[in-house]
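Running this now, will post back.
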Amino acid sequence: MSKPRPPKRISKNSLENAALFYLERFSASAEALRRVLLRRVDRAARAHGDDPAEGAVLVAELVARYQAAGLLDDQRYAEAKSRSLLRRGRSPRAIRQDLARRGVAGALIDVVLRGLETDLAGDAATLDRAAAEAYARRRRLGPFRPPELRAQYRDRDMAALGRAGFSREIAWTVIEGEAE
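Update: finished.
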């Protein structure tokens, strides 16, 4: 077995190529791209004995340039990611945590979640309920379970919704509701 190749030295061109290649494959926030590039800089700096601060400056310039050009837009990213998570049945609390973990600013997360609420023509409870229904549909809980098994699995279904981050009231409403 051959030894793994050491990483190439960091240059402005190599960082730009890495960033574009990453953005071709993944949608990312500015902070997420910054983290990916800084990990690459750190690996190369350790392998070649370079100063990682020089690479960090190049990364900051590159991210700022991509933001100015519109290639990185945290709001667009957060809106798309939050809609995707909501369709998959993630609670607003879980969406908030996921976006924060991905480096989206808290104020921007608030704006995006308020936008989701207005799109559903309701409030936070409506958003919670829509997410809970999507989760129940996907996992075949409550009204999406065969009618003869609903009563037998009621407590398990409630617990599953609770673990997913939904309140007891929302979980009860969804579990006792009818499939649409």
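The CA atoms of residues 92 and 113 lie 7 Å apart. More later if anyone needs it.
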